[in-house]
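Bench notes, bay 3.
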Amino acid sequence: MSSEIRLRSEWLSLLESEFEQPYMSQLSTFLRAEKAAGKTIYPPGAQLFAALDATPPEAVKVVVLGQDPYHGPGQAHGLSFSVQGRQRIPPSLQNIFRELQNDIGMPAPPHGDLSRWAEQGVLLLNSVLSVERGIAGSHQGHGWERFTDAVVATVNEGASPVVFMLWGAHAQKKCAAVDRTRHCVLTAPHPSPLSAHRGFFGCRHFSQANAFLEANQRQPVVWSLSS
């Protein structure tokens, strides 16, 4: 798969052994078969590894873990919770912006493209990196979870302290092995409309993340998405 899809060289050197495992070959075969069957897969192939491409391993300051990409046309572009262009802002992201406003006073942005965060070291990683159009969770159980486990382990083993923002039980379970003596692990319910009122609102993760980064001599994240 590594020869077919662009992946930042710094990540490829750290994850090369994963691409040599049988599960990745099986995942590649699955994706090709889905496309050959005429199914539309999101995000486009060139953006499957967009989160890793945007944020090199040594630059990772914050990890925000999602489950799988948005499954509507034109939404997913490889960054968790993010939508490209002028797509309508999904409910979970609206709630993330609401908490940002309450936490640090950030005005609600006019778009949902989180690329600016990724460029500053926020790894916007989904557990599963592809999905069939219109069918949430359709690519779970085909190998992506093992690959993204390896990404999380790589970040955990890195030299610099990192903030893990773990929203919901899925993210918290996925990052259970993160070394809390080195890294900052912030947990809260998922920002979806079903659970945000159970403790996501008021979690103040964004100000806590920046306080931890500054305390560890790392540049804080500018969370504003305004021009």
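Next record in the batch:
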Amino acid sequence: MAGFASILPLCLRELTFAAGGRAIIRGVSARFDAGPATIILGANGAGKSVLMRLMHGLLAPSSGEVSWNGQGPARARRGQAMVFQRPVMLRRSALANVLYALELAGIHAPQRERQAMDALEEVGLAAVAQRPARVLSGGEQQRLALARAWALHPEVLFLDEPTANLDPGATREIEAVIRAFDASGTKIIMSTHNLGQARRLGDEVLCIHQGRLVERAPVEAFFAKPASAEAAAFIKGESPWA
């Protein structure tokens, strides 16, 4: 991140996305600055994953705008990374998966091996560097996906439900890596429907309900006294649409 102009703030202006004749994201506006870890919270089907993909640049909005420090998404491509709920693993070793990410990013060959091994060390996978990525456990594959991101030193890291399919032990390991990213200065923007995880990892919460942003608040205030009926119902474990 050092030595490059910041890609933040990330600004969403009246962001809308529709597919199959149905609006999935409805007029979302928000600004994201460096610093606080941001949790996008909402029920399954609320639109969290689509919103993350719009911010990351994988989807183009039906209307509205995504801008990075006043410029278009292309400007931010090198300064951000995204880790998905089910990461894609190449048919190569764990180390080769990280090396490939560095190659795509244009990192000079002499630097790649050192950066890749540093990243694997950071997520606790140095011992399995030569093991085929696809034989690793689900938790190890998710840590490998985080290692690919770590090696790139992104200014912004998007995490789309990164522990949804993992057991509690693997979840703790992933959360430890996420905290390391946060401590290193990377801006975390993470979606989850897990209330405990939002409390553990977040500084602020954006609550999404049926594609709309219904509330944004510091994490402690959000859980102590949610301002919207939809957020209050979600926290209580009720179905907001019932």
